[in-house]
Amino acid sequence: xxxxxxxxxxxxxxxxxxxxxxxxxxxxxxxxxxxxxxxxxxxxxxxxxxxxxxxxxxxxxxxxxxxxxxxxxxxxxxxxxxxxx
Length: 85
Description:
- By secondary structure, the chain is mainly alpha-helical.
- It has one domain (5-83).
- The chain is 79% helix and 0% strand.
- The chain is globular.
- It starts with a helix and ends with a helix.
- The mean pLDDT is 91.
């Protein structure tokens, strides 16, 4: 693969998105961070519309909550913000 400026910009962009997700998980926890991240990513990081972004975020929230907290009875990390309350 030939390295050029466009490839480096795409790698940097992907890395920044990943850092944003990690930061969100640290601050507000998995259950909130994942749907919020997906909404922001699909709405502003891609060309998806509002409806797709909202539906994806809501469905992901339900799947993550049901899968881990209800079905597996495994509490997920709540985040720094909610740990203080």
